[in-house]
Amino acid sequence: MERLGRYSAGGGRAVGVVKGPRARWWRLSGDARRDAAAIQEAAGLLRRGGLVAFPTETVYGLGADALNPSAVRRIFVAKGRPPDNPLIVHVADPAGIPAGLVAEWPAAARRLGEAFWPGPLTLVVPAGPRVPAAVTAGQPTVAVRCPAHPVARALIAAAATPVAAPSANRSGRPSPTRAQDVWDDLGDAIDGLLDAGPTPVGVESTIVDVTRWPPVLLRPGGVTVEQLEATLGQALQRAAPPRPEEPAAAPGMKYRHYAPEAPLWLLPPPEDGTGPAVEALQRACAAGQRVVVVGCREDLDALAAASHIPIPRVDPLIAEQPAVLPSRPLGLELGPRDRPEEQARRLFRALRAADHAAATLVLALAVPERGLGRTVMNRLRKAAAEGRCAGIGRPEDPGGV
Ligand code: TXA
Ligand code: MG
Questions:
Q1: In terms of C-beta density within 10 A (0-12 exposed, 13-18 middle, 19 or more buried), how is residue 33 classed?
Q2: Whose CA is nearest to atom 22 of ligand 1?
Q3: Is 0.85 topped by the overall pTM?
Q4: Mean pLDDT of 61-83
Q5: The pairing of beta strand 216-219 with beta strand 192-195
Q6: Nearest-ligand number for the alpha carbon of 251
């Protein structure tokens, strides 16, 4: 995780400030001393009840002072987020949870916190008396995370208050992995944006409920299930699939999200030259659809060969407006099949790039479900249009808004 210590939005340039209609957009240099003034200003906004978007190692967050109920309520308005969906509270110090934030710190929290904080892990524990109901959505628990990104930690420390922050996207949209994504979704609703370049992990934190034993996996994320289970010496329980008539374990799990504008079909990659993806691509192209295919390198190769349709590729981390004829399918490559971290880093960029490419149909090819590949598949299932996960299983595991 050594790379998490470095960041830069501006290729080493000095801190720059862009003034939008309302918000300030600070382009950070990656040099803690030069960035300190911007971070202090952003912390001042938080202390005065403002909304500040900031980078974490997973995705950009939309932050407010977690102890200020009216600031917290502004998050829900800005995102268009259902009020029954609680927020994660971010702390700066892995060993120092602010007084009154939690009522109890179970042994499993201690063990997992020691192993993975600072980092992409969120722990659900009994809530303390100082947490406003707006943060917990009235639940008796609170979700706590100590992020690893140096800007996130410096901001929270400078604000001297825990920071409530969901992902800084409009509700339902793919999570933002760079400042421009935040600006596109929320530029007119925030007070400040700290831009430290693309986020290194690319998918949100793993959420584990440690109020029960064995702990329950509420959302797969940046720390893998394999890592957690090795640390606990114990298999995690899986959250039950949400039923409409019951409150969900992680309320975010009942909503569809991460979705691009076009319908997304999640399909198995071609095998032996056939499969539903081959048929779907041929039919959609014949019907004049603008198809974007998201998948691993080898699977895009196999699909192009099996369908006899060339699929020009771009790397979603680099290209935003690919110069490809609208009559051709466009491939957004997540990376090789055996590199799940690469796939995770590109996933949300690819889903947003599909929108920029004006896709009318997104065909997503399933990735191997190992390590972070499970997280990638969790997000793809949540993004898939109703009933369009042929042969891939149902969207039964939790997600987040
Ligand atoms: O990586 C992340 O976790 C990012 C960055 C910004 O830290 N944050 C993030 O927050 O993904 P959000 O709000 O997009 O997703 C949080 C998820 C939601 O599904 C919510 O329902 C769940 O966490 N959650 C929050 N508090 C909870 C609680 N007390 N019990 C169960 N689930 C909770
Ligand atoms: Mg979210």
A1: exposed
A2: 250
A3: yes
A4: 97
A5: unpaired
A6: 1
Predicted pLDDT at 7? 75
Q: What are the CA-CA distances from residue 235 to residues 231, 278, 358, 374 (Å)?
A: 10, 38, 43, 16
DSSP state letter for 5: G
Tokens at 247, concatenated: 């409150």
Helix (H, G, I), strand (E, B) or coil at 89: strand
Residue nearest to atom 33 of ligand 1 (CA): 250
For the segment 87-105, the average pLDDT, to the nearest whole number, is 97
For helices 340-356 and 372-383, the axis angle rounded to 10 degrees is 20
Q: Mean per-residue pLDDT for 33-60?
A: 98
Ligand at minimal distance from the CA of 122 is: 1
Which tokens is 145 given? 């995370």
Cα separation, 390 vs 265, whole angstroms:
8
Is residue 4 predicted with pLDDT exceeding 50?
Answer: no
The SS3 assignment for 142 reads strand
Beta bridge partners of 143: 88, 124
- Give me the amino acid identity at 212: R
Task: Return the H-helix or E-strand segment holding 350.
Answer: helix 340-356
pLDDT over 60 (residue 2): no
Percentage of the chain beyond pLDDT 90 is: 81
For residue 124 and ligand 1, the question of a CB distance below 6 A is answered with yes
Start-to-end C-alpha separation, the chain: 26
Protein residue whose Cα sits closest to atom 13 of ligand 1: 166
Residue 106 backbone dihedrals phi, psi, to 5 degrees: -60, 160
CA distance 57 to 222: 9
Which range among 219-228, 249-258, 374-383 shows the weakest confidence by mean pLDDT?
249-258
As given in the structure block, the two tokens for residue 217 are 């996996």
Residue 263: how many other CB atoms lie within 10 Å: 16
Does the beta carbon of 400 lie inside 6 Å of ligand 1? yes
Selection from 339, 237, 384 nearest residue 392 by Cα = 384
Q: Which ligand is nearest to the CA of 171?
A: 2
| Tokens coding 37 | 């003034």
Question: C-alpha distances in angstroms, 210 versus 96, 111, 136?
Answer: 18, 10, 16
